[in-house]
Amino acid sequence: MEPSTDHTIRRARTAPTASGEEVGTDRVRTVERMHRSVPDRIWALRKTPVSPAAEQANEHVAAWARSHGLVRSEAAERRLASMRTGDFAARVYPTAAVEDLLLTTDWIAWLDFLDDQNDDRRTALDPEGFEGFLARVADVVSTGVRERGVEPDGEAGAGPIGEALTDLWTRTRARAGGRLGRRLHRHLMEYLAGNLQQAAYRGLGHVCDLTEYGALRRAAGGILLTFDLIEIAGGAELPPSVYYSRTYQRLLTASGDVVCWTNDILTVEKETAAGDLLNLVTVLRSAHGSTRSEALARAQDLVDGRLDDFHRAERDLPGLCAALELDRTRRQALTACTDLLRAWMRGHAEWGVSTGRYSCPPAGPGDLEELIPGSADARRTDARCTDARCTEDARRADGVRRADGVRRRPDT
Fold first, then answer.
1. DSSP state of 147
2. Residue 150 carries which DSSP code?
3. Model confidence over 84-135: pLDDT tens digits?
4. Nearby residues of 303 by Cβ (< 8 Å), 6 or more positions away
């Protein structure tokens, strides 16, 4: 076992819980099992340094989330602390200046908070309401940020999610040029659209088709948005001729799939328990009529294949530099961004085997804040709902919650 992972397991064995007790052997076994589930070739990637500001980022994001109302209960605060979001950012943006690391940590936390709202069953029962909420979130960045003390249109209706995004967008635009800002905006809109499509799939209990899974997973995972932040946090803004080149797009999509699909491998147990069907292992079970263990092996092979694609595209970079006649500065920027894509693939896996975010069973109702305006009223309305349509919708949603994806035969 490699030293860094051995350190992770030792830390899991000795890390204190909220009550001051040591984590038991069950947690250690979970870390070891999750480590084994990650394809070996992820661990074979060259290690990158970890930012020394990781703990500062953990403390900062806790205060930032409280200040914007993203966490309000002790249970939610404990859950955020267990996620170690600052550790994640420190691994995937290892060369970022401190202020940039804090910004990227907040972005990762914001994406997680919105993802948690999508995981809530009420979004499946009320897709029109969720679409309206996401439209108000989009308005926060589409209609401009604060100018002369004026609130952007739509922020009030987007609640804490919108308030936190206003802060993020203001800080991000101060660091991004016009081209990068427009690209960030486009990828944020794609992320919101992916969330809505994901909610629609969940509401119907549909498993995504394998041929469309890659694009939907990248969109709903917000991976291209977080890759854009590479150019702020340690890389440099790439010119359109480089960013939109076939070679660099291959690097982006291959590394994005590696991260998203590794995430699926690490979270399949948790997501199955929650009835979440947007997972590569579940999609493969549906496509091939296989057991979970067989689908897991297929998923690991697909990750390896995308790693091959990344390395092939990487070998084409000198030809791209020559074809575009890039000067030394732009070559260095391209190298830095490529190195950080590699850091994302390995750093995400290193964080993923130990974070509390991927724990199973999923977080209970007390651990998640209701961040969609009116969601508490929706909960009460749903509880009182007695007409035939509501009863059927609730029954279907509960079935999705318990679903294992496709249960054609028992696992072996």
1. B
2. B
3. 999 999 999 999 999 999 999 999 999 999 988 877 666 666 888 889 999 9
4. 39, 41, 42, 257, 258, 261, 262, 265
